[in-house]
Every structure is written in C-alpha cells, then in structure tokens.
Amino acid sequence: MLADRIVPSLAPTRAERKRGWTASFSSIMPVKERRCSLRAILLTTLVSAVLLNGTAGLGAMMREPIPLIFDTDICGDCDDVLAMAMIHALQSRGVCRLLATTVSVDHPLAAPFVDAVNTFYGRGEIPIGVVGEGGVAEPSKYLSLAEEQEGGKRLYPHDLSTSRHVPGAVGVLRAALAAHPDGSVVVVQVGFSTNLARLLDSPADEHSPLPGVELVRRKVRVLSLMAGAFRPIAGNARYREYNVIKDLPSCRVLAARWPSPMVWSGFEIGEALPYPSTSILRDFAYVAHHPVAEAYVLHQPPPHNRPTWDLSSVLAAVYLDRGYFDESPPGTVTVEPDGATRFDSDPAGRHRYLILRADQKPRVIEAMVQLASQPPGNLSPPR
C-alpha cells in the first residue's frame, strides 16, 4: 500500500490489520453466527450474480479453462507469434487450455518453430499438425530461429527437426475434437482455411465415427477467425484480404459449410491495432533471447508499430463478453469468387463480425501488450 511506503512506522502490518479485523468481527458476533453470516454472504453473492447476469454470471465465476485449438499460417507476418504468446499467457491465467496447434502454411521450419515457442513457454508436449502437400508455400524471415544455435546448442530448444516428420493437421484436429465434450471447443483460425476445409470433408477414423461436418457441429462452440474485410480499405469496398485469397476455394467452403457459429475479425480491425515496438524492446528483456521479440524484429525491425490482425481473434475467442469489441448483428458472410467478403444480415445467421470503436482501441492494445509480453510461469518478470 502507498501508506506503507510513505510512513512505514505508522502503517499497521498485514498481520496487525488481519488481527484487528478479526478482533472487531469477533467482538460483535459469536463464532457460530459468524460462520452462518459468511455462508449467507457467499450465497447472496452467488444469487446476485445469477440475478444480474443470468446463469452466465454464475458460469463465469466457475468457468473451466476453454479448450482451444489454434490454426495458424505462421510464416510470413509476426502477429501469429504474438498471438501464440497471448494464448500461453491466457493458459497460465487459467482462461484457456491449448489442445493443439495446426499449421496451414507449407514450410519445413513452421512446425519446429511452433514447437520451439511452445517449449519456451513450458508446453513442448502440445500436439502439432501440418497442412502438408497442397498447402500454401511461403518464405519466412523468422522461422530460421528454430535452427539458430548458441554454443553448439539450439538457441530455442525443441524436438522437431522438420515439418515433414509431423502428423497431418486433419488427424490432429479430429483427435483433439473427439476427446472433448460436445459444444466445448473454441477454434481460432488466423491463416489460410485449408486445414479446416479439409476437416469438414474428413471421413470417420480411429478418433471418431463422425464425418467432419458432424464432428465440428457436435464439438465446436465457436470459430474465431481473422479473415475478410467488412469496412472499405483505402476506399476499396471490395478489398480482397490476404488470408482469404491465398486459398480462396477453402475459404469459400469454410464460410458456406462450417456448421458452428463464426466470429470474423476483418482486416480493418488489425489495421487499427498496431503493436507498440517499445513493448518489443522493453517488455521481453527478462531473457537474453526471446522468440516472440526476435521474430518481430526479424520481420520488420523497430521503430515500427506493426498492425496485429491475429491477436484480435484470440482476444475475441476468450473474452468476447468483456467489451473489447462490439459485434455485428447475426447474418451470413459470403466469400465471393474474386475473394471479396459480403455480409448479409439475417436473424437466423450463424456469422458475426467484430466492430472496433475508437474508444475501445487503447484498452484492446493494452490487453494485447500485457498478455503477449507476460513471462512464462518458469521465468521471472523483469524487475
């Protein structure tokens, strides 16, 4: 407390404050009545939560970590890496549990890099799946960090030598979904739609007797995805967003056939949320080498506040009820043949898109910074 720092000789210690509170409480109420009173206070709190917020209010107080799958095109931009850091921070806080990471870009170092980041955060056991043959292939400025060495050892330890030795994404997705209760899993897609479109077409297998569409219908609570554009970009009302057009057939399939609710974060959201490079230079300095900060610097060195499209989909996936974003009315998103995205309002529609007001931006950026820069549980934050 501030008083403790200003006049420590006059401020009571924590133990003294506790003894004083207990003594005051004891002087006005016998032990048995105190117990009854505490039970009444707890019951009143729970009842108030239900009355004010419905059963959702009580559920929020007792929520289990959200089972989460992260599907990423980690390769080109560095916001995928920041989004991974956010997920690990949220898991450390008990908000979610990362079931698997699937990679939608075909690059030999993509899976090793994902494994290196997971290992850095103390979770190297998390399953990884790759898109494999037919996936979009792209170069990367930072995936080489998976091979970086110092003193004859990997700078970022991991146990994958190449993506070629990693299971296919569809099998990993089916295994993760089948192992969890109906309506429980949240999927975050921040890249190309290849893996999820293939999942919809997957047949029954050793993981589940259900075909892909039915497995998704049963298990997935919501799909939060970074794709499309729902406001004109630089005056262009038919903006063809990158994640959509790189595998346009798969994105069209996903929009038309995905059976669970979908929340779209359009290009305009990430464009309005630059990640401050001052955070990269300062907040990750609790270790000599940090894969998130180094990926950001290799992608485009500071001073550069990089727009962060993918982080919005993670934040919306777990905290959509916290007021970080507004949502459109329900409707249907159609991915048109040229790659433009069109939204049509429909009360029965299963799609919504995120809306970011100007007054929400500072709070969202601060949340992203605090989560992305949170140290792993096995490391101490900087003094």
Please state how the strands of the largest beta sheet are arranged side by side: 3-2-1-6-7-8-14-11
Gap from first CA to last CA: 18 Å
Strand share of the residues? Answer: 15-25%
Instruction: Give the overall pLDDT as a whole number.
Output: 86
Instruction: Give start-end ranges of low-pLDDT stretches.
Output: 1-62
Q: Give the radius of gyration.
A: 24 Å
Order of helices and strands: HHHHEHEHEEEHEHHEHHEHEHHEHEEEEH
Please estimate the helix content.
40-55%
Kindly report the CATH topology of the largest domain: Inosine-uridine Nucleoside N-ribohydrolase, Chain A
Shape: globular
The CATH architecture assignment of the largest domain turns out to be Alpha-Beta Complex
How would you explain this protein's 3D organization?
Helix content is 41%, strand content 15%. The protein has 16 helices and 14 strands. It has helices at 2-6, 14-28, 31-53, 55-61, 79-92, 110-120, 169-178, 194-200, 212-219, 242-245, 248-257, 267-271, 277-282, 291-299, 309-319, 361-372, and strands spanning 66-72, 96-103, 128-130, 149-150, 153-154, 185-189, 220-226, 262-265, 274-275, 306-307, 326-327, 331-335, 341-345, 351-355. The strands form 4 sheets. An 8-stranded mixed beta sheet has the order 3-2-1-6-7-8-14-11, with helices on both faces. A two-stranded antiparallel ribbon has the order 4-5. A two-stranded antiparallel sheet has the order 9-10.
